[in-house]
Structure formats: structure tokens, C-alpha cells
Amino acid sequence: MEKKIAVYICTGCGIGDALDIDALSKVAKGEFKVPICKTDGQLCGPEGVALIKQDIENDGVDTVVIAGCSARVNYDVFKFGSDKIVERVNLREQVIWCHTADDEDTQMLAEDYMRMGLVKQKNMNVPEPYHVESFSRNIMVLGGGLTGLTAALESAKAGYSTILVEKEAELGGYVGKMYKQVPMKPPFTDLEENCIPNLVKAVEDAGVKIYKSATVENTAGAPGMFDVTIKQDDGTVQERVGAIVLATGAKPYEADKLGHLGFGKFPNVITQSMFEEMAVAGTPEASKVAFIQCAGSRDQEHLPYCSAACCIESIKQALYVKEKNDEANVYVYYKDIRSNGQYEHFYMKAQQEGVVFVKGDVTEITEEDGKLTIEADDKTMGTTSLADEFDYVVLANGMVPTAALGDLMEEESTTDEAAAACDEPKASTPPIIKANLLNLVYRQGPELPALKYGFPDSHYICFPYETRRTGIYAAGVVRAPMDMLSAVEDGAGAAMKAIQCVEVTEKGEAVHPRSGDMSFPEFNMNRCTQCKRCTEECPFGAINEDEKGNPLPNPSRCRRCGTCMGACPERIISFKNYSVPMVGNMVKAIEMPEEDEEKPRILIFACDNDAIPALDMAGINHMQYNSWVRIIPLRCLGSLNLVWINDAMGRGFDGVLLMGCKHGDDYQCHFMKGSELAEIRLSKISETLDRLGLESERVRATTVSIMDYDKIPAMLDEFAADLEELGPNPMKDFQ
Amino acid sequence: MVTPDKERAAEQAVPHSFKKKRGDNYFMEQKKIFSEPVKYDLTFAREIYRLENGSYIKQCMNCGLCTVSCATRDVMEYPPRQLFNLIKLGKKEEVLTSNTFWSCTSCCTCKARCPRGIPIIDVMHDLKKYAIEYGYTDYPQAAFYKAFWTEMSSRGKMFEGGMTARYFLTRGLDEIVKAMDMKDVGISMLKHGRMPLLPPKKIKGLGGLKKIISKAQELDRKEAAR
Amino acid sequence: MRYSYYPGCSSEATAKANAHSIEGVAKALDVQLEEIPDWNCCGASVASGVVGDFTQLVVTARNLAIAETKGLDVVTGCSSCYMTLAVANKKFKQDEHFRAKANEALAAAGLNYNGTLQVRQFLDVIINDVGLDKVAQKVKKSLDGLTVAGYVGCQTVRALPFEFDDPEQPVFMDRLMEALGATAADFPMRARCCGSSSTIPARDIVLDLGYKIFESAVAGGAQVIVTPCPMCQLNLDAYQSLVNRKYGTNFNIPVLFFTQLMAVAFGLSLEDQAFKYSIVSPYEALVQYSK
Amino acid sequence: MANKSILVVGGGISGITAALEAAEAGCEVFIVEKNSYLGGRVTQINQYFPKLCPPNCGLEINFQRIRNNPRVNFFTLAEVENISGQEGNFDVTVKINPRYVNENCTGCGKCVEACPVEIDNTFNYGMNKIKAIHLAHDFAFPMKYVIKADACKEAGCAGKCAEVCEYKAIEPDMQPKTMNLNVGAIVWATGWEPYDANKLSYYGFGRFKNVVTNVMMERMAAMNGPTGGKIVRPSDGKEIKSIAFLQCAGSRDENHLKACSSVCCLASLKHATYVREQYPDAEISIYYIDIRARGKYEDFFIKVQEEANITLIKGKAGEIEEDKTNGQLVVIAEDQEAQQVTRKSYDLVVLATGMAPTTATTTIPAEMLYDEDGFVVPGVGTAGIVAAGCVKNPLDVSSAVRDATAAALKAIQSTVRGQ
């Protein structure tokens, strides 16, 4: 159906003074023959909005192009219902606030943005949501320890049918085997009774469906339609669930590797969990006990990370000893006491009970007549201590996530020709460890991708539940080392995310970070060459493959970043409102001055999340920058399709600059590695460019963070200067 | 019992603050504790924990704020923090023969600052009392404290002349000789009417005060025995 | 304004100037001070080192018990007395076990203290009860042009941190001096210990600390040091010459009780100003203010 | 009939997160924020540890989520005055303080040029000045100007800004409004305040210009901060040759904040990276009791030690002295591992002041329980009011977000249970 377009140009905020509005209107009315093109002194004011609404009502306008301020502001004012397309042409932040007023170049820039906006809306449609068939709202929790039980309970309490799968015969996990637990509430000083029995009862009472002695044989499907095959002794069952919480916990670090601390050599050198077991059986009457912190943790030879919970767990166990025998001498050898937050009170409580804390590294443990001697540096006294007669030495041996226990998945060697042909450098992919937890039937491997040390954590500070497998949320100590208090919150948080995933999937919307986005990639399979780039590069494992290598998309796993679209050499992937032709046509809509006009053109593809706001910010701060640039926002640089570079160079652009997020270990791309992928793609065409006599330096990638707006003018000037040196794009004349 | 010789005690009263220089920065070496390995033995610590304010020292987290806060840090052998550690190590002799608690002037800075809320000066008072009880009284301050109390409790009020006399009687003539320049101070005080030669009148309720004191001490003993 | 008054032992000996000037200033400001009958020595910070905290606090509390019969809050002009009295008082108020035990001891002399009073330093009374406005009104001879180092010392503010003023950098003394027309010296050592209790047994400690205090006061441009504390006053006044001898300095800075300067600014009698007790003569520095 | 909507008090990272997580699961949410913008404390942070990425990046995503979600409603310059009712059906009175700038504001900025009144910039902790009419900060969301009206009154300005505003956006007579909301659950996420460093008088904050706090350091390092991102001495604008970070300035202290604030060690390590980036040769010292880099933050601790070449001194710094002639600061501390008391001279000292929950000073107008530092005790008090983020525990950003996500679910449960 033909769109009914109207263009509104705002002349407020100085736009009317800086630009020739009539000429701008002519672009819409003349070049693009837009039937309605109006101007207003303050479009965001009540009269301006009324003007637009009137046209929608009276003239059936369904596509509104607003040329004025940035889409980052007044978004709420210019909302006309989900069935209307609203396109914003940013004349304020990206034109008049950062370029000379009343200037030919500024005017050309504004007119080009008008063209790009008009072309863009022409090439997009209102997305229709994807609906999952046989949709399930059920939540599955994997792991029946503290975190898992909490997640299950919280999910059930919110009114969701919940299924809990535990591999042991009994629920409770590691915490379930504890004698007592660390305090979980103010005043954070007292040992608490183990919460697991009550928690288990609450979970049962809440109607959670529980599978014990059960493992997951495989997990297929996608959010809203995961099919999980659960294996028990007497066979398998299948459950359809909407989302999954992975709470399979951690295992104590292998104490056998701690021979240097006497484990394995002396029977009374034991681990935290062994001491816990002893305490359950009745804390042994001991008169002298030592706890050795960081036995394995914070040790490059063992676990380089800190296991987060051991300090307060040892404090707790020290209090067991004192509880049993007030006169017992209890020592804790530590590097740093990490009783963060209100656990400081717990630390002080242990001191008040007489537990002695010694900052020092244990250098040797020896035994004579069943009694142990500890040699250690006493750092705050500058001495060595040689304390003897210990009944027990308890090693705080840290934790290893269950997700890290398994073999690393081998990179599959590609023999496929099509794949090999277009397969040169690849973006680094996070390792997948075959830990036998989820057994995903995913093209990209059976488990959640592991981050450092095997924790399938989120990489993002602001979004700790950001997951690379949509609908599956890791929680508790499998996700990151944490104490019990954190694990309980984490279980509830992950349950929230699982519930949310179910809710948005039902509506056909994307989950974070493109929350609410209804668009999803559609594949024109006729032209697919089975190159597998889309399946490989999808950061979320959303696309499976059939035996022939054809992509099998799972829209509810998709996060709508467009990486697949950028990856596809055949350009068969597109979204309703975001596609290769859409951007390509925007590129083509930009007017290209003749070479002798000496008006070079620079095309910028900029990431919507960081680079675009940074460019806006440069405008807000009235930083002036080069007016040869034309900026096209992308969902993510991962969606950059190389054909756009072709288009741009063919059109005669003198240079192309990609502005993406920082990559590397501390990458900031919210789609994992969009900017990295774009750079890799770019590297592949540099040779071609050179061959065509187009200097590859004309096409560059750079990273900007949202805070780099002060650097942007210089960055652009520098690029422009380099281009001037190269001279005009020789293709200009071939147009 | 180890007796610190008077010479050493006197020598340590001389400030040797920040003598060492490293670039623009200065540092002050602390007393080396011991070279051979030490054992942890809480027997002595438990004795100290039982003193009026003794159990507070268990709370020390070795932050070292007391060390820096002390008005007499330049002369103190072990800062309070180290002294508390020594107690936990069972180093009774080192503790009781150290000048630490005797150097304390009760200025309350450490007490006001201690992040663990340890009333450090009160612990120092306990240690002074403990040291006197066990005969570790070779520091001049011990004599001074005793003189003060004797003077006060025998009169109900303080008479500086009497207290000074008692102090020097205990410490011996050496001490007077060393303090000869005090003479000038004394004379100017006299000249300005600030040093009465006669003691103040005893308080009327001295008998009652003495009863209060002995009852208080009795209650203390009772509580300690419990 | 009526208070029970606890003069402290020094009022009759080393700190007569304190007693006289407090008396004069109190009168000028309509503050009635009624001496606690048959008061006894508080024991300072020394007694507890011999007989323990509890005995010391009970000895101190005898004064509070006597004062309580009159029902008037207790004011003292001595920082050391203030500390022991205030700490004892707080214990009576807050620690039930202590109160019971202490009253058992006090009962030996037929006394009892319920912890109903407040213990105040005279400086606190001037600032918070009388108020600086009233003080300023009473000024007859402004101390304009005089720079004063307000040396609060340690025990006044640190015994009960923050209850009266900042324990490290108290400001009230400076505000008071400003109310008298004087300029408060920039004097970071304003609440440092002068070492008083070591004067006799470890004099070098005291001289060392005194040196730092003088140095800081002089660097801040002070012509006079004022203090609320008899120990501080004594140390800094009487031992100034020894400091000079030990460090080869020539400090010559009068050390007065703050109440003496108030007496000067209020134009009170020479007896109230009590300069004669000063060892480092204040006459020269104050000649243009004192009548 | 239970109300399915949720009120979130506090529009910082915890509040925004709780609101968005609930809204994206289908709830109607209302955010009430006392500042003129959303984002709270994190907007004042230059970079997050351990990734050293800018908070505005994540906030941008969250603001995008707010923009796109019709179920999120928010009110700035607003505070909750009264709560009545119970779980599933709370009546809440919200006071909306006047912005003096109405919705006509286009954010053009002409008013600022005309404004003659300068005030302390509280966003930068008073380290520079702004006009009485201003945008709170570059990334202020919503991007609407605001007037500090008492400053105008004091300066006797009759409204120069109103004269130049073409859009009639300035309303000097704007009055506070009250509004009533009926909600099923309340998430209380009013966050924290930096502990008042003036209370640590032994560190000389407020007396010595070159003693600053960790939150001030964030602004000094921020490109859009008072120094344009250059870390210099406040006293004379000179470059830094040496800098000391003093840990536990207020935290882990029975006289101040009794709890450990959890984030300061990592924040100081992060600050060391700021300094190192600008000054390859500066001496950087951290005085500490325990370095609390828990969990995977240990990597950051190791990385900073290796890359930023810092000196770690085990010993809480005790005192700071200032050399009046040149503003140099001498930090006196006990270096316990070296068995020395050290006096070291620095150009700048940064106090790692901790987190005081806002509930220590302003409690929730409902029956709730607080611990000795003023943190909300969870799980007791009025059912249906859930504390989230730093009013409950001192938390780093990631943990606060986790906590807020969990709180969103608890709030949803209240709306279900109240039915």
C-alpha cells in the first residue's frame, strides 16, 4: 500500500535563521513530490503537534517526517501510534548547532538529510510481530541449590508455572549441606539456621514441578518454545518452556591441587566443605583451628579470581568452633579480609568472639603427632610466625563454576567451499565449554558461551543479565563468584528476566537492548549460497543450520542487531524497517557535487547507541565540525553490509568512516562484537579497493564512546585533511 | 622478670621523629620486634581481655590509625595496634616492659578516631594498672601515677607540691638532678602565685570518699573473680 | 542561668587565673555558678591508671551525686575535670549495669546518682547557653586588631566526640574570639595534645609537643594563645622558656584562659583579667585593650 | 481490586532498572525522581570499573528503553510525601517541585546566555559555576532546562531568561503541585549520598583545597567536568606529580559508616588508571586496610597493579598536613608491612568516602526498619514496599542492577498477591 507521507519542518531553535527553509521544502515537495510539507515555528509545541495530528486525522497521513531536533528528544511529543512511521531528520543537533549558519555547505547538508530521511521512510514498513507457535509461558530453572530454589520460588510467586530440575536426589545443593549459614539480614552478626529446608518446602508449596535426579539431555527451540528433554533413571520426559534460568552452581576447587598446603598429606588439613560436613555431624571439639584464606583463589597457579564468598564463610566456620568451644583458639590467615558491605559487622563479630586474624601468607604446614604447625609471614608485625598444635587446618579452597567443568568445544574445521571462499579473518568467538548442563541444540554449541574463567556471565556492568543465548539466564555462582546474599538476589533477578522474556516474546517484541522492537530478519532463501556467515556471526546463536548449511532462523532468539544482515554477501536478509536497500538508497540519495566544485563528501556509518548520541552531544555543545560529512545511523556496526561501501565509493564519496564501539577485551558493543566484525569486513575489501585504484585509506573504521564528543571535530577534520591529500575520488566522474 | 634499665627508658623519652629521609619523604623506623619466629599463644591475651576494657582489643583490624594519631608516636615503642598484636602473640614481657601505655597522655585522639570503636586510652589505663599490680614500674610515669593517686586519695584533692615530692622520693635524687632546669619553672610559678606551698584542706567527706573507693575496688575484684 | 560549679583542684593553685576570670565573666553574663559543696578531685586521667576506670569514675561521680541533690547541671572550667565528669555522667546515663554497680559503691558514703544532670564545659555554656550574640553585646573594648590562637586542647572536644564541637578542628573558640572583636589565627594545632600528664615524668614529650603548638600558633600570626584548659595553660605558659631553651627558639607568646580575654573585652576588673598569674607576660600584647 | 501498577521512587540506575524490568514484563510503572533529570549518581561517574566504560552508554540504552515503552511514566523534581493503604492498593502523594520551565522548552539554550546569575554547580560538587537557569548536565534526560529560583531571587533578577525565550517556556510563578497515584507496589530506590567528608576533620577536607573526595575525582576526570577532564590541583590548577588515595574515609568506621561501602577500593583503583593515563610518571599511592576486589574484580586489581604502577600501603592514613606555601599535602600513615611511620608529600589527596544510604537522612514515609547505618532492612515493615539498590546494601553498579531486577519481581509479586 502506498504510504501517505507528510513532511514537517520546524523553524524553531534557530533552524529557521540558519537555513533556507524554502529551499529545504522544495526538496520534499519538488524532488520527492511529497504532498504535504509544512513548516512551523515550534513543532514540538501544542500547536505544532496539533498540526500534525490534524493531517493524520483529516488526510490519512501515515508516515510523518519531522525535520527538526534529534530523535533523542521530544520522542514523547511526536508519538502518533504504533501504526504510523515517524522519521526524524536531525536538523538541529547535527546540522545547525555544529555548522555555520547561512552557509552553502550547511544548507546542502540539511537538504541531504532531508533526502535521506525521505528515502529511508520510503524503504521501510511497519513491522509485524513474530508470534511463536505453541507458545509456553512456563519457566524452567536448572539447578536446585540456593539460587535455583530461589529463582523457582520467586517465579512461582509471580504466578508463572515453574519447573525445577535438579541432578541430585535431594534439593538444596551446596548450601543444603551446610550446618548453618552466614547472616543474610541486619544486624549481619549472627549465624542463621540453614534456610534450605524452609526454602524447599516453600518451593513445593508454591506448586513448582520438581524433577530430582534429573539432567537435561537436550534443549531445543527458542524463547517461548524451548523443548527441554529431561532425563531421569526411568526414562526421559519433554517439557515445553518459555525461558530458562541456569543455576547449576559451582564446585569447590579441587583440593588435591593444594598439596603445598598439606592437603592430601595430613588428614587434618581439610577443605571448607569437609569442615561443613563435620559440623553437620557435630562440630568436633577442637582447641585450636586455623582457616587459610585464598587456598587456590587469587593465585595465578590455581584460580586467579577471588571466590568472593570464602572470607565470610570462613568467619562463619570460625564461629562454629567458638560456638562449640568458647575457649578454642581460632586463627584466620588472610591476604585481605573481604567482608564487603554489611558483612563488616560479621567480621567484627568474629573478632569480638576472639577469632584472631593474621594478615600473612602461609609458607609451610607440617605435622607432628597429628598436630599441625603453620609457618606464615605476619605482615603487619614484620615477623614470621610458627604456630603449632593445630587440631585442624581448614582451607578456603574457592569455587569453580559448573559451567567451566567440561571440554572446550573444538572449532569445527570448515571444508565447505562456499564457506571457505568468503572466510578469511574471523571475529573472536567466546569459548563454549561442554559442561553438560543445557545441551543446547544450537548451531553454535551446546552451552552458554563462557566468559573469563568459564563463568557464563554478562559482560556488561549496566546489564548483568545480558545473555548471549536469549531466554536463558545464568544466576548465582555459576554466573560469577558471589556470596549467598548476592546469590539469592541473583536468583530472583534471573527469574525476573526469564518472566520478562516470556512476556515480550509473546508479544513478538525483542528483549533488551532493543526492547520493544518488533522487527525481525527475514531471509530470501532462494538466493542463499549456504555460506554460513549469518549462522556463524550471529552473536546470540539465533540461527541454526540444516544439513545443507541453509540458515534456520529462530526469530524469538533474535536480538534484532542486524549482524546477519551485515554478514550476508548475497544480501538476502532484511528487516521490515531496516534493510540493505534502505541504507543503500540513503547513500544514493545524497547529492554528489561535481569534482570541480571542490566539495568532497564523507560518509559516516555510526552506531546508534554510542556514536550517534556523541554526535548529538557535539551539537548540543555547539562544537563545529566538517560539513562535508553525511551521517547514517546503524543499529549496530555489525549490520554494516559491504555493499554500502561499494555504493558509496561508486557514488563518488571521497571517504567512508565507520564509527563503532570500542572492542577488545573490554568491548562496549552491546551486540558483542559489531564494531569488530565491521572492521574485519572492511579489511577484506581493502585489497579490492586498492585494485580499483581507490586508496583503501579512504575507508576507515574508528571507535568512539559516547563521551568522545569533544574529539569528534578533530577526528573528522583529520580524516578530511587526509582525504584532501588523496585528492577526489576518481569514481566521481563515472557517475 | 625483665627490668628495663632506667637509662634506656630515659633515652627513649627523647623524640627521634622522622630522622630518616628518602627524597622529600620521611619515615620513622618502628622498633623491630623479633627476628625468630613467634608462636601464637592466647593465654596472656585472655588475661588482658578480662581487664575492664581489655576485650575491646579483640576488635582491632590493624588499620594503624592509632599509630598515626598518637601525640607521642615519636617516642612510643610499639603503637597501640602492635601492642594489641603482641598481646595476642602472647608476648607478655615485651608488652609489660614497653613504654607504650606509659607514653599515653590520655589525649583521646586515638579513642575518638578508632574505626573499631576501641577506647584505646582506657585500655592503656588498664595496662598501666596491670603493670603496676605486677610490679612493672620502672618507667618514671609509674611513679608519677602512684604519687598522684596517693596524694589525691589521702586528701580528696590534689596538691601538686605533695605529688611532686612523692614522685621524686620514689624516683630518687638522680631524677631531680636531671630535672634541675625544672627549678626555674618552679620559681616562676611561685613568683606568680601559682604554687601554694601548703596543701589544700582535706575534703570534709574524706572518710566517705575512702569508703567509696574501697567499696568500688571490692566490687571490681568481685566482678573480676566472676 | 544557674549551674552547679565544679572548680577543680587547679583553681586553687596553678590556675587561679581561670577561677578569677570565670567568676568575673559569669557574673557579667548573668550566669550563676554555685560551687558544689565539699567537691573532691576528679582523679583526672591519671587515677584510672592506678585504680582502674571504675573506681576513678565512682570517685568522680561523688561530685555528681552531691550536685544532683540541687538538680542543677554541672559546669566546670577545667578540661580534664570536664572529661572525667562527662564520661562518668554518660556512663550513668547509658550503662545500666555500671549505674547499679557505681551506686552500690556510692552508697558506702550514703550517696546515689541517677544520671539526671548534664556536665558542661564553661566554654560550652558560653557558646550554647549564653550565645555569641549576648557575648558580643557585652563587649566594651573590642579586641580588634588582636590575632588569637584558640587552643582548645584535646580533652574538651574529644572525650565525647561531636557532642560539643568537632573533635579535631573545633570552631567554637574561634567564633567566640571573633565575637570579642579579635581575629582567629589559622591554627591547625588547635586541638592537639600538649602532653600535660607527662610534664613531670617525661618532660621531653611535653616540650616537643609544646614546640609544635607554638610554631603553629606563631605561623598563624597569633599574638596570644587562649585555652579553656588549666593543664594546657600551665604547660604552654610555664614551660615556654624550656621549649625555647631546648629548641633554640624565642617564643614569647602569652597563654591565657579564654575567659581572661573575655574579661578584657568586657572591660572587667584587673582582678578578673588576672594577668598577674601569667608567667609569659600578656601586658605588652594586650596593653591597648586592657585598662 | 488490586492495582497492577508499580511506583518506583528514585530514578537512578537502580530505580530505572527496576522500572524498566517491570515495565517490559507488562506493568505500568511510575518513576519519581527528585532531581531534574534521571540517572542519579551514575550520571556523575566518569567511567565504570572494571571495564572503564562510560555510564552514559548504558544510560543511553535505558533512556532508549524508556522512550520506546509507553508503560513507563516518570516525574522529575518530584518526591513522595505520603503513603497510605496496603500491598496491592497504595495511595501515594507525590509533590512535584516547580522546574520554572514548562514543556515548551525546546532545549535551545538561549536563556542561559541571557542569565546573569551564577550558582555553584552541584552536579560537579561545587567545583565550578553554572547559570541559575541551566541544563543539569550534558546528557540530562529529559533534556529540559531548570531554574534554581532562590538564586534568582537572591540576585534580584526579574527574569532575563523569560525575556529572551521565544517559546514562552519560562514560568517564574510556577508552583509546586501534588499528585496522587494509586499503585499496587512500591520500589524504594533512592540510592546513596557520598559520606560527608567534613566529618573526617583529620583529613582536612574543606580546609585543604587539594584534598578532594572520590566523587569529586570522577568529575575532575570527566571530559565534561569542571576541569575539562584534566586532573589538576584545585588550589592552583597545577599538574599532578604525586597523588594519594585514602581508603575507608568514613567506611568501616564505628564513628561514621559502620559498614564497608564495597565499591571504594575498586573506585580508587579505577582512579589510579585515570591518573596514569594523564600522567605517565606520577607517583600513585593507595593507603588501605584491606583491598576488597571481590570475585572477578580481582583481575582489575591485578591489572591496575601491573599497568598503572601503583604503590599500595597497608595502613589507614592518619593525618594530613598542608604546606601553606605551596599547597602540598603530607600524608602520615603507618606502613605496616615496612614497619615504619611514613610522611609522604603529595600534590593531591583523594578521600575514598563511602556510601551513606539516603534513608539515613530521609526515611520512607511508611512503617519500615533500618539498620545502624540507615540501610533499609529487607523483608520487614510494610508489605509491598521493596527496597532496591544502595538503600539496602552498599553495592557496585552491577550488583545494584541485579538487586533492582530482583526488586522488580518482588514488586510484581505484590501486585499479584494483592489481588
Structural commentary:
The complex is a heterotetramer of chains A (735), B (226), C (291) and D (419). In chain A, 29% of the residues lie in helices and 22% in strands. With 735 residues, chain A is an alpha/beta fold. In chain A, strand 5 (139-142), helix 6 and strand 6 (162-165) form a beta-alpha-beta unit. In chain A, 59% of the residues are buried. The model of chain A has no long low-confidence stretch (mean pLDDT 94). Chain B has 226 residues and is mainly alpha-helical. In chain B, a hairpin with a 2-residue loop joins strand 1 and strand 2 (25-29). In chain B, helix 9 crosses helix 10 (160-171). Chain B is globular, with a radius of gyration of 20 Å. Chain C folds into two domains: 2-121, Glutathione S-transferase Yfyf (Class Pi), Chain A, domain 2; 137-286, 3-Layer(aba) Sandwich (Rossmann fold), CATH 3.40.50.11810. In chain C, 47% of the residues lie in helices and 10% in strands. Chain C has helices at residues 16-28, 48-51, 53-68, 79-94, 96-106, 122-130, 132-138, 155-158, 172-179, 203-219, 230-238, 240-247, 258-265, 270-273, 283-286; strands spanning 2-6, 32-35, 74-76, 119-121, 147-150, 183-184, 224-227, 255-257. In chain C, helix 1 packs across helix 13 (258-265), helix 3 packs across helix 4 (79-94) and helix 10 packs across helix 12 (240-247). The chains are: A alpha/beta (735), B mainly alpha (226), C alpha/beta (291), D alpha/beta (419). Chains in contact: A-B, A-D, B-C, B-D, C-D. Strand 2 (25-29) of chain B pairs antiparallel with strand 19 of chain D, so a sheet runs across the interface.
| Continuous helix count of chain D | 9
Which structural class do you get from the secondary structure elements of chain D? alpha/beta
CATH topology of the largest domain in chain D: FAD/NAD(P)-binding domain
Shape of chain D: globular
Strand residues, percent of chain B: under 5%
Q: First CA to last CA of chain D: what distance? A: 6 Å
SSE string of chain B, helix = H, strand = E?
HEEHHHHHHHHHHHH
- Most extensive contact: A-D, 91 and 89 residues
Biggest beta sheet summary of chain D? 5 strands, parallel
Q: Helical amount among residues of chain B, as a percent range? A: 40-55%
User: How many structural domains of chain D?
Assistant: 3
Q: Strand order of the main beta sheet of chain D, please?
A: 3-2-1-11-22
CATH second-level architecture of the largest domain in chain B:
Orthogonal Bundle
Q: Between the first and last Cα atoms of chain B, what is the distance in angstroms?
A: 28 Å
Count of individual beta strands of chain D: 22
